[in-house]
Amino acid sequence: MANVLLSAKGIRIRFGGVIAADGIDLDVYEGENLAIIGPNGAGKTTFLNISTGYLRPQAGHVSFLGRDITAQLPRTITRLGIARAFQIPQLFLDQTVIENMLIAAASLSGHRSPLKALSSLPERVEMERLLDLVGVREYAERKARELPEGQRKLVDIALALALKPRLLLMDEPTSGVASSEKFGIMDILTMALAKEKVTSVFVEHDMDMVERYANRVAVWSMGKIQKVGTPAEVLADPKVREHVIGI
Amino acid sequence: MGGRIKPITFKPITMAAVFFFLVAAIAPLFVPSWATLFALILAKSIVVLGIILLLQAGQVSFGHAMFFATGAYAAAFWGKYLGGGDILLDLVLGAVSSTVLGLVVGLFVVRYREIFFGMLNLAFSMVLWSLLEKMFHYTNGADGIRVARPGVLGWAFTPDTFQYVILYVSLLIAVAAFLGVQRYLDSPLGHMLRAIKSNETRLEYLGTSARRVLLVGYVISAFLGGIGGTLVAIIQQIATPEFGYWTKSGEFVFIAILGGGAHAFGAFAGAAMFEVVRFYAAAQLANAWQLILGVVLIVIILYAPNGLIGLRQRDRRAKAGGR
């Protein structure tokens, strides 16, 4: 089997009376697109938050490429090669799209000279290529604030790709997008991930998306992983159909 | 490729800046009483540039008078204890001491945001103010320390010549600070500073420490505050604890809001308006000048929230039919 990139062992966390993770064990393999599904409140986003250092688990460990990253700061984990895209796009709204990208590029390369203009950084060509790859190059000089939601989602993903990550964690990449655009965005996204050789984990509610874009599915239920398997296996499971899909 | 995109307001505002600097350089040659007025405007603008820098990150410091006072007292102490004085030496002392203080205070305050950032700055500045007031033996307390008229590299000046010397020194530094701040805001670090205002979480998720970015901005703004303080102490020939009092910090924030925080030139527009109103209104209306400035600020906040430099932009927007 392929390399294990991310490995979670025995993750536990509770918020007051809510158990958001109750012994999560999961390995993410290089090159796959792993979907996380499950009802609201099952702890899916919590898992992403723990994996990126936003939350510290009360028990258990997360390692990335064999290195323990439990309770590291988000920026440390980012530098190791885990990027994150958000359910609600997190952009620098008052700056242009290309400036957003160049801030990411400067973060990665450590370009900190106060005398060099951001707009003339050598990474500009590469950033324009990434914008092109996700199909938003035409918006490069527009303020992020002016973009429609679907395009903001794509810029959010381009920002993550600008960091040249090994692994990309995405929280509902198509939520908040008109259903007619969902497949378009996911097509662009999976193509871009394959091209950039980035492994991905994405939380998703829409089973059509899961079926079409995931290689593997993990089903969350009340802080536990109920089942892991191929989309066909998981979606055929009567318990999953009853509890998660609701049919 | 390489097409540098400037904010739409850049060109007219650059012209306004060039025009302002030319007026500051030439007008006092014809009206001698303006030499000191313009020197004061320029010196205060340098401090306000530091406030505007922090405004980019969405942070307001209500304690920047501490750096202003540090710059002023650096020159005053040198004169008091070592005698003599040289403008360049005073400036170096003021810059170094305020930068060091900025680094030390900055390590604490960059951990906080918004009201906590503002108040912690205020607290630090009040500590400095009390020290300046209470350590009478060293500081002469509330009376302050006189700053004797310094020379430049061994040359001494008569009072009449000196007011022009300090004017042109202030002008030179103000132009350098204006260009330097713009350059910095255009750089990756400057853009990251603005990113703190719009989305600090994302900045951290790009692998950048927002605190470090803010610390760099804070130290630069402390440096500018110190330089401005040294210049004002030389212009007014005195340093008093009043320089570090919270109302002085408030004055700098006031000027920044008045001029407009979106562009470095806002510092100059605001300081010019502020000092000119004070210069003339104080003569005509004695104690009413604060009233006039208060009304001006209310009008600015209600009708031109982007300050004086935002007036043009607002005008253009209105013509284009709203936002």
Task: Tell me about this structure.
The complex is a heterodimer of chains A (247) and B (323). Chain A is an alpha/beta fold. Chain A has a domain at 90-164. In chain A, 37% of the residues lie in helices and 26% in strands. Chain A has helices at residues 44-51, 74-80, 97-109, 124-133, 149-162, 179-196, 207-213, 231-236, 238-245; strands at residues 4-15, 18-29, 33-37, 59-64, 67-68, 82-85, 167-171, 199-203, 216-221, 224-229. A six-stranded mixed β-sheet of chain A has the order 6-7-8-3-9-10, sandwiched between helices. A four-stranded antiparallel β-sheet of chain A has the order 2-1-4-5, with helices on one face. In chain A, strand 7 (167-171), helix 6 and strand 8 (199-203) form a beta-alpha-beta unit. The longest helix of chain A has 18 residues, at 179-196. Chain A is globular. The two termini of chain A are 34 Å apart. With 323 residues, chain B is mainly α. Chain B has one domain (10-24, 34-319): ABC transporter involved in vitamin B12 uptake, BtuC. Chain B contains 13 helices and two strands. Chain B has helices at 10-30, 33-56, 65-82, 87-109, 114-134, 136-139, 159-186, 188-205, 210-236, 246-259, 265-285, 289-303, 310-319; strands spanning 145-146, 238-239. In chain B, helix 3 crosses helix 9 (210-236). Chain B is globular. The model of chain B has no long low-confidence stretch (mean pLDDT 87). The A-B interface holds A 52, 73-75, 78-79, 83-84, 86, 90-96, 99, 102-104, 106-108, 111-121, 124-125, 141, 159, 163 and B 1-2, 4-5, 183-184, 186-192, 194-195, 197-199, 201-209.
Strand content of chain B: under 5%
Radius of gyration computed on alpha carbons of chain A = 18 Å
Number of helices of chain A: 9
Identify the strand order in the major beta sheet of chain A.
Answer: 6-7-8-3-9-10
> How much helix is in the residues of chain B?
over 70%
CATH architecture call of chain B: Orthogonal Bundle
Low-confidence stretches of chain B: none
